[in-house]
Each structure stands twice: as C-alpha cells, then as structure tokens.
C-alpha cells in the first residue's frame, strides 16, 4: 500500500539536517521550523516507545507472585474484559509504569505520561491509585488504611475505588488468563494518537 508522503515523515532525511546554532539564543526561524519537523516525527513514535518500555517492568521490585509486567497486563486484561473505554484500559496497562524510574511517586509518573491524551477523570484515577491501593496494605503496618477518605466527595472518588478493587488489587494472580501485550497495541496507539490537549487543559 502506498502511504501518503505527508503522513510518513522521511526520518532519515530529517535526521541528516541539523540547526545552525550551538547556543539557543542564536536560533533562527529556519532552525525552529526544522526542530518542529523533527519533533513531529519523533512524537509520532510515542506509542512505540511506551510499548517497547513496558516489558522492562519485569525487572521491578520482587516478592509478588507475578512480576510488574504481568501485573500490568493482567490489570489491563480485566479492564478490557469489563468493557472499559480505551483510555481506562491504557490507564490500567500503564498505571505502574513509573515503578522503575519513580518508585516513590510512581502514580504521578504514570499520570503525567497519560495526561495529554485522557480525560481529567482518568488522569485523576491514575494519579491517586497509589493512595487508594494502600487501602489493601497499610493496616498491616499499623497505619491508617483509609487515606483515600481525604478525597471522599471528589467526582472521581468512586471510580478510583473501583479501579483498584476490580482491576489493580485483583491482578497478582499467576493462574489468571492474562492477555499479551499485542492485544493492547492498537488501543495504546489509538490513545497516544489523539491530539494532545491544548493550553486550555484536558477534556472533561
Ligand atoms: Fe501502583
Ligand atoms: Fe498496580
């Protein structure tokens, strides 16, 4: 199939060209236009990079009966089988993607990754899932398991409880029929292929 040339940037040709400056203060309009061209070409590969990164979660913290990669796939499998919309399936797939690089604020990491492409509600769910998920653990450390209660009344509160109860906390099962990453590829491409929200903020 012949692809429309305007939709398929000639990456090799683009990469042969570089800006004229070595200090940004000397940039010209042509330089900025060239960088925009590079940027659009690079940005089009975001879904590919996300998909390539996910299997690295196999090397996250150990101790669970499934690794973080399987946990992520299983969380997304449950979301998909429950008929969740695209962005919630992707949220389920990526909710722990920050475990490797941001172990102390992994929820915010994943939320930031998704923010330009999803609703405020989905962003809020991912950003707060760590606190809501702690409901299942904190009391065993003598702490208050109800930290989530500080958000009671928020429009996304119940959906976040549900995200954790139905999908996240239930997805540590080695015997579950977890779907492979290939199942989620088109969904990830659809969500990351959306036009990112503009300066006015994300859609409701
Ligand atoms: Fe998490
Ligand atoms: Fe999780």
Count of runs of 4 or more consecutive helical residues: 9
Total domain units: 2
| Beta-strand content estimate | under 5%
Largest sheet: none
Number of strands: 0
Uncertain runs? 1-5
What is the residue-mean pLDDT, rounded to a whole number?
92
Order of helices and strands: HHHHHHHHH
Instruction: Return the CATH class of the largest domain.
Output: Mainly Alpha
Would you give the CATH topology of the largest domain?
Hypothetical protein af1432
Judged by helices, strands and strand pairing, the structural class is mainly alpha
Helix content: 40-55%
Give the N-to-C terminal Cα separation.
Answer: 38 Å
Instruction: Name the CATH architecture of the largest domain.
Output: Orthogonal Bundle
Bound molecules: fe (ii) ion
CATH superfamily assignment of the largest domain?
Hypothetical protein af1432
Rg for CA atoms? 20 Å
Based on CA inertia axes, which overall geometry fits? elongated
Structure description:
- The chain has 204 residues and is mainly alpha-helical.
- The chain has two domains: 10-43, no CATH class; 46-192, Hypothetical protein af1432, CATH 1.10.3210.
- Helix content is 49%, strand content 0%.
- It has nine helices and no strands.
- It has helices at 11-16, 29-43, 46-53, 68-81, 86-94, 106-114, 120-133, 157-168, 181-192.
- Helix 4 crosses helix 8 and helix 7 crosses helix 8 (157-168).
- The longest helix is centred in the N-terminal third of the chain and has 15 residues, at 29-43.
- Residues 1-5 have low confidence and may be disordered.
- It binds fe (ii) ion (2 copies).
- One fe (ii) ion is lined by residues 71, 75, 95-96, 168.
- Residues 71, 75, 95-96, 168 line the site of one fe (ii) ion (FE2).
């Amino acid at each position: 199939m012949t692809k429309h040339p305007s939709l398929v940037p000639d990456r090799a040709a683009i990469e042969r060209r570089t800006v004229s400056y070595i200090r940004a203060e000397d940039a010209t309009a042509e330089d900025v236009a060239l960088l925009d061209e590079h940027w659009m070409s690079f940005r089009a590969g975001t879904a590919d990079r996300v998909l390539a990164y996910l299997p690295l979660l196999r090397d996250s913290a150990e101790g669970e009966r499934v690794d973080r990669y399987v946990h992520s796939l299983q969380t997304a499998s449950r979301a998909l089988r429950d008929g969740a919309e695209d962005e919630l399936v992707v949220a389920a797939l990526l909710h722990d993607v920050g475990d490797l690089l941001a172990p102390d604020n992994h929820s915010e990491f994943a939320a930031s990754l998704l923010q330009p492409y999803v609703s405020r509600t989905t962003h809020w769910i991912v950003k707060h899932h760590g606190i809501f998920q702690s409901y299942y653990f904190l009391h065993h450390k003598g702490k208050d398991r109800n930290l989530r209660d500080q958000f009671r009344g928020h429009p996304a509160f119940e959906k976040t409880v549900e995200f954790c109860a139905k999908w996240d906390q239930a997805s540590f099962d080695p015997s579950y029929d977890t779907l492979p990453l290939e199942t989620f590829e088109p969904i990830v491409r659809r969500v990351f292929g959306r036009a990112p929200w503009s300066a006015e903020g994300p859609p409701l």
